[in-house]
Fold:
Amino acid sequence: MTGRASTAPGRRVKRALGQAWERLSQGESGSLPVVLGLVLLWAVFQGLNGNFFSPRNLSNLSVDIVGTGLIAVGIVFVLLIGEIDLSVGSVSALAAAVFAVLNVNEGLPEWLALVIAVLAGALIGALHGFFFARFGVPAFVVTLAGLLAWNGLTLYLLGQSGTINLDDQGLVAKLTSYYFHDIAAAYGLAALGAAVFFLAACRDRRRRKAAAMPYRPLREIAVRTGLIAAVAFAAAYVLNQFQGLPLALLIFVVLVAALDVLLRRTPYGRRVYALGGGVEAARRAGVRVAWVRVSVLTVSGTMAALGGLFLASRITSVGQPSTSGILVLNAIAAAVIGGTSLFGGHGRTWCAVLGMLVIQSISSGMALLSIQSALQFMITGGVLLAAVVLDSVSRRSQKSRGRA
Amino acid sequence: MTGRASTAPGRRVKRALGQAWERLSQGESGSLPVVLGLVLLWAVFQGLNGNFFSPRNLSNLSVDIVGTGLIAVGIVFVLLIGEIDLSVGSVSALAAAVFAVLNVNEGLPEWLALVIAVLAGALIGALHGFFFARFGVPAFVVTLAGLLAWNGLTLYLLGQSGTINLDDQGLVAKLTSYYFHDIAAAYGLAALGAAVFFLAACRDRRRRKAAAMPYRPLREIAVRTGLIAAVAFAAAYVLNQFQGLPLALLIFVVLVAALDVLLRRTPYGRRVYALGGGVEAARRAGVRVAWVRVSVLTVSGTMAALGGLFLASRITSVGQPSTSGILVLNAIAAAVIGGTSLFGGHGRTWCAVLGMLVIQSISSGMALLSIQSALQFMITGGVLLAAVVLDSVSRRSQKSRGRA
Amino acid sequence: MSDPPLLALRGVSKRFGAVHALDDVELEIHTGEVVALLGDNGAGKSTLVKVIAGVDPADRGVMEWDGRAVQVKRPHDAQALGIATVYQDLALCENLDVVGNVFLGREVRRVGILDEVEMERRTLGLLAALSIRVPDVRLPVATLSGGQRQTVAISRSLLGEPRLLLLDEPTASLGVEQTAQVLDLVERLRDRGLGVLLISHNMGDVKAVADHAAVLRLGRNNGFFDVTTTSQEQIISSITGATSHARRPPRTGEAGP
Amino acid sequence: MSDPPLLALRGVSKRFGAVHALDDVELEIHTGEVVALLGDNGAGKSTLVKVIAGVDPADRGVMEWDGRAVQVKRPHDAQALGIATVYQDLALCENLDVVGNVFLGREVRRVGILDEVEMERRTLGLLAALSIRVPDVRLPVATLSGGQRQTVAISRSLLGEPRLLLLDEPTASLGVEQTAQVLDLVERLRDRGLGVLLISHNMGDVKAVADHAAVLRLGRNNGFFDVTTTSQEQIISSITGATSHARRPPRTGEAGP
Amino acid sequence: GRAAESGTAVRPASPTASGRPTIGLLVPDSITPRWDRFDRPLIERRIGQLCPACSVVSVSAQGDVALQRQQVDSMIIKRVSALVLVPVDAKAMRPAVKKAREAHIPVVSYDRLAQGPISAYVSFDGQEVGRLQAKALLKAIGPRRAPGAGIVMMNGDLADPNGVAFKKGALSVLTGKVRIEKSYDTAGWRPDSAYTNMAGAIAALGPRHIDGVYAANDGLASGVIAALRANGIRPIPPVTGQDAELAAVQRIVEGVQYMTVYKPFKPEAYAAAEMAVALAHGRGPGPIARDRVRGGVPAVLLRPIPLTVHSIRRTVVKGGMYTIQQICTPKYRPACERAGLVPSAEPAR
Ligand SMILES: Nc1ncnc2c1ncn2[C@@H]1O[C@H](COP(=O)(O)OP(=O)(O)OP(=O)(O)O)[C@@H](O)[C@H]1O
Ligand SMILES: Nc1ncnc2c1ncn2[C@@H]1O[C@H](COP(=O)(O)OP(=O)(O)OP(=O)(O)O)[C@@H](O)[C@H]1O
Ligand SMILES: [Mg+2]
Ligand SMILES: [Mg+2]
Structure:
């Protein structure tokens, strides 16, 4: 899609790389600086404690990002339309509580309780969306009210029983504790990812060529596929060193990829971006703004519920929610650090993954070094800032671009 | 400024009122619906518990809004330029801790410790502003990093001593515990407020008349002054029933009024609004964008520090900050409920006062009714939503206004 | 000609606070006809376009489509009738690329997935027809020049099969050649039986393509002319208010090319 | 005439990614001279204006002011030199009212407090001079019509005592009468000794007020003409690229009115 | 030394016009289930028994000092006859306590020792809790392994004075007996922080070098155990706890948590209720206040009880906190059978 056809193969690659860099640095998918920041972060932690790069730690990391990561993916949707959802923390806690109460206390089968919990999240999201889209109450306020109200409901649900232990052999517990021990699983996933990318790119190239439109040279496609494959296989290798591919990671990657396709390859996704680029313009183009708004908040509620179940799965118990906004802040921070714009219209689901990696790496590194909490706060803040400054500065050093 | 001169006095007033309503409903100072919501809220609480309107409760309420209210005023500045400051909670805790450590542990005189604490807040705000304006890191992320880092620093400062009790006869304790028992104080303030408004309006009228420009009819000025005087004297009467005019309220009202003048009557304030209406347009008009940004975040840091001291004064002690973002959320919610736009360019400092009244009334009413915590959350959320829905719907029912 | 007009407005009024932007306005557009809507700055032309397009519905008044009264409350309704619009402020999504903007709301899909190749191909075709160079149809429109943006907006309006085209100063920032292309296009569309409402301040352009000219002044009808038989001076004096024509556009039956 | 030009650009270039928006451009403007900057859509005219105004500085090239090289890195720098600009996209603050926009960055104050009465009085004066009705100068500009907004932007640029006026399609959405007023104004300013750079796609307007015309094509100089002695066809063919004039604007000493 | 402040009897404010005394109960948060689940009902019940005419109003402060201060103000406005106060922050509530005293409302400090002129105090000994946990941990590790054993300490929130007391008590026993490999303080007592920290400790130390974990309460224990499980560590090393949450008791039955500390709520709540009723009627706190704290404040100090799988019946079940049925849900039935809580192969009753 990027490159335009040219003649000499050498120049072609050079130009393709140049254009890729330009694309990257133009912010739409400007994740390169964050990746660099992440690598730097890892290097520092590994230098301070040799266990950081141990397969065990990296495997844990890959599972730990999933819960909050799913929530952050939902937040990406909301940020894309230029709004914010403060309720995700409460909704995730509520979904976990609903599941625990239905399954453990009321004895419903796990799958049914799980479906109801996720549906509850979706419903709540839709409710927020309704108030937002129908009455024009700012999403910030609606979801702030939601934050309080759903917190109260969760307290009420758990009021009788207090903390509830989940069945540690059950479906939900398995979400984060199951690993595909067969090494073929991890390698297979890596191979599949690279193959899908390669085939999609080739198909696009073929169609463009047929339509006599500029197309991406084969060599460039090969280079990109190679890069993706290298990263994927390296990750698979590390995971196989510990317990194999975690189910949680598989679900996360598949969901993120699916939602990425939804956002960037379907009419629905196009409308989400359009809303972020100008509500009035989108409205005049016939986009049903209210409907898109409701749907986006529904997605965010659903993802929050899913994320809540993963978070509960990780500690196989569901307790009273803390009123702290830490979870919300982490989710929003992940999306923003990954490159999603707070002002709407720019970002991808993969941003959430990248951002979560940064955040969880910091927190895991801190735990590894057992830093005291006072210092821990300061360091987390400092590292966060450093990562984003790096990102912003490298974007800045590109030409500043105004508007005609 | 609003009305244009006309002929028959009766029609004049009618038109003036009509125009005032239009102005109000046009959102710039569209606080009327919130005021109505507030009155409704009060009526309900008074109906449920006859103590709500007791002078003691109202007087307490008027002091309770000050701490968070000051923080919310700072937030209004940040929202006006279309950004957000998440660090205010941490900064207010840090300022209180700095004061307590310097004054109680280190034995510095109170006034010096107080000045240093407020300066620390200003400095921190400026630091945030620097990172935001200089490196282009989104204010959200800078202040999120600040939230964590200053929290850590506060923990560290208080690490040795834990919670520190302040001198309950001291300057800072007096901030919220001193009352002007003389009834003349409250009535005097009310009279002064009305008089200043009246004189300013008359002076404006005279100058416009002299310049042969449309001016506001005298009768309209009289009606407005009468309204303001009525509200002010009613408040003064209630306060005098309990212990008189609270010092905290006096400081709050004076600060809010001064900052309102700064925002709406000085070139600096004009630039703040301009940034919210279009950064690029402001930049091309020669506004030094970076400088305004730094200054706005400095104001917000300073107000956070001041607010923190009032909050500490209210409980005459300084303890470990809660990591929960409740304070930030309350401050932002107050600003938004009061009518400040999250997207920049619209709002006034008085919005923060109105919004705080709503929030604090809910919390005070809950405490009076001793509602169970689970329900308490839900009701707070519900009432918040209802208040803002009322506001949004009444604005909506006015003509929707697009752009050419 | 006894066909009902494609679009007829009867007694349309709209207020913004104290401003009467439209006051009892009447207008008719027939198929195969180009009506120029003229008026001074602030006369209410764009407001009228937004009323017809459903962006900002009127306070009072009736809108008839093919002789039947219709309700147009949302842009969607107007699109469903076959009304396509180029707005004066263009209304493009800054973050989307040219292709995305042209096809927004009418994306081409293959098994539910966007067919980017097809959309890009058709976009290139549309732009070529308007003889304007856009450096890359995959750049966000925020980076385009004023004229390039205007062309994107015009291309947008040609998608689908509109029956009525509302053009609000479509050539304001176009170059000489591009303007000629757009006027050409308008004539071709008229010949294909579309109705066109053209707003322009350029009398030359109006003379060149319009059949009739409706003049607004301070939100009211101030004359309806047959462009071929009326002098330019007459129209201009009606615009600037030198003459006041209380005359309304003729009702169906009187009018017609 | 041996005076150095008011403004001279030497070898100005600017790239946006793969797009060469300006490529080695030369330009001179003398006091008391109106230079028209012409070119197709996307030729780089607005980019050049933004370079001069310091909104988006050039990658390479020298800018001379009264014969001395100057650095213009921010809009502020250009204003300090006495350069006032009307941008094609107007660049107004939507939430501020007309008075606020006109005086933004140059507020009139009395003892530190805004003097609203004085500012309103002067705004009304400026608008009256351009013979445009704005319903209420206390309404936010977001509610104004396209032409009204443009007039606000023009009024803005006349504040202070500019020495050079950059007008990027200032009459694009103005009515007939208003356009005439603006052109009149330009002539009066020239007579007062200001330099004016006027971008327009309207050859008639250019012919009416410009002394010289500089043509850009694909970001390069493509001819510099004396408007009084060159035919309109010649200029147009240079704009559309029918003829390629490698000729650059004459260096100081050759040129002059 | 606030002997002067710590009077005993306070003349109560006119027990409301109707003559029905009201007693205010202020709990600190809703995150810890005990307040709403046990303390409030128990105190209400006991007050109802002692003084059928009395009514109780209770509020929760959501962990917010300022809110609790405001709630004390509201109680004063409502002219309650006595307050039972669990301070969010013991030091910070001093002015509020003082204000209540000025309004002639006696304050019973419950579970946490509030500063200021309180009239009575009832609680468990915090340092003793830490000592019990540490002793139990040493016992579980075994005297043979102890000298070289490495443990991880998952302390509570040190902003909470009780958290400091637990840590101090535990360290007084553990220091020198075992190696403390890693020690974490958990802001906000959050189980998920405990999880993250424990996972870090495992990655840093290796799975085989953790012989026991000191977890300050049951919530932290749940996070610790989840991390141990997630890392595939079998058998799970001994983990301590506190509060005897149902979930923790079940874990103990299951054998994944070694112990918890049982602080019977009933005696604590009853003592508070009795003292509050007595104070509300203008009498002293009564004869049950045998202890004295802070130089003269009448107090009831209760002893915490360690709870392991062997003492479940004797403690939580006997104390009426949970029934066997509540503990031995179908899922835990086999474990209960093994532990002898229910007779094997026979329906529980
Ligand atoms: N949203 C709005 N709120 C208030 N007034 C408005 C609004 N939109 C338009 N107006 C006013 O209505 C009048 C007509 O505006 P409109 O945009 O229709 O003019 P126009 O004929 O298109 O002018 P132009 O040729 O300058 O584009 C103007 O006086 C304008 O100020
Ligand atoms: N910020 C930007 N990023 C990328 N390309 C840009 C940017 N701004 C302008 N361009 C490109 O530079 C070229 C020149 O644009 P410019 O706005 O100067 O044209 P113009 O001569 O003013 O045209 P018009 O007559 O249509 O206004 C265009 O091809 C445009 O796409
Ligand atoms: Mg218009
Ligand atoms: Mg241009």
About this structure: Residues B 404; C 45-46, 88, 168; D 145-146 surround magnesium ion (ligand 3) (CB under 6 Å). The first helix of chain C runs from residue 45 to 52.
